[in-house]
Amino acid sequence: MRLVIQGPGISFQQLAHIHQLLSASHQQFIQIGEHAYQLANQSAIPPELHAFCLDQRIDLALVDDLHNLNNLGLAVMDMDSTLITIECIDEIADMQGLKPQVAEITESAMRGEIEFAESLRRRVALLKGLDASALHRVIDERLQLTPGAQAWITACKQHNIKTMLVSGGFDFFADRVKAMLGLDVAKANSLEIIDGKLTGRVLGNIVDAQAKADYLERFRQELGLRQDQVVAIGDGANDLTMMSAAGCGVAYHAKPVVQEKATYALNHVNLEGLVYLFSPLSASSAQTCH
Fold first, then answer.
1. What class of enzyme is it (predicted)?
2. Fewer CB in a 10 Å sphere around the end CB: N or C, the chain?
3. Residue 285's pLDDT band (boundaries 50, 70, 90)?
């Protein structure tokens, strides 16, 4: 296994202290990014290192050697607050002056306190009568890719890793994100719109936690991939089943319940951190840090 540490800024002093805490006197860090480092042949993370990195806002992970860009074949990702910076339904609700009410339900669902399908029905019902033009306004005024998203997807393409967005949000936005990033597949819910207004209902079966996992599994089988060749990335309780269906799951700036159950967690770096998390150890293309 390899230890990967990264952060918005890691100083030489921090790196030296981490090296000391690891008692890795005969090993040296390999720099794999501007603020990302790797150390091979690690088997455990000392509790004091966990505490130090938590205090210093540094992400660290003990990564299985199988989990690298050369081995992965499919990356499955959540959309809201993962690939994009917003929760689309909260922003739609803001057009109705209902953002606090809807956001409260969203947060409760992401913490796993309410079943996702029920939470979605409650939130969408609050949007009844809203003009569909509000959806276009959210795209035009508020929808932004999460920093590092393009770098991650570019790395996936370079390594022939298929990319799939599965969202409990709405296809109106998912299709736009798919086009922006050049993703292979996007699956999401459909809002019912009649006479240019939202009816407060969702069409068809709701894309909930199990549906996300089912889409992942179906695509994995179509591609002829093993489970260990799949990574799933998300931030809410609705992503946990999907993560369990993958070879590894990454909690991205996620709720505590997700961090506890995910294989890896990124709390401080942006999505480009995924590139370094899954970067194979390669001394020929990296710098050694003493």
1. hydrolase
2. C
3. very low
Which run of H or E residues covers position 54? Answer: helix 47-56
Strand pairing class (197-203; 185-194): antiparallel
The winner for highest mean pLDDT among 41-45, 100-104, 225-229 is 225-229
Which of 59, 78, 235, 239 is flagged as catalytic?
78
Query: What's the pLDDT score for residue 262?
Result: 97
Sign (positive or negative) of CA dihedral 70, 72, 73, 78:
negative
CB 61 within 8 A of CB 264: yes
How far apart, in whole angstroms, are the C-alpha atoms of residue 27 and residue 233?
Answer: 31
207 and 81 share a domain? yes
Q: Which of 59, 80, 235, 239 is catalytic?
A: 80
Amino acid letter for position 15: L
- Return the minimum-mean-pLDDT range out of 24-33, 53-62, 106-115: 24-33
What backbone phi and psi angles, to 5 degrees, belong to 42? Answer: -110, 145
- Residue 109, domain extent: 74-216
Q: Cα–Cα distance between 81 and 271 in angstroms, integer?
A: 11
* Catalytic-residue membership of 80: yes
With beta carbons less than 8 A apart as the criterion, state whether 63 and 277 touch. Answer: yes
Quick one: 197 and 89 in the same domain? yes
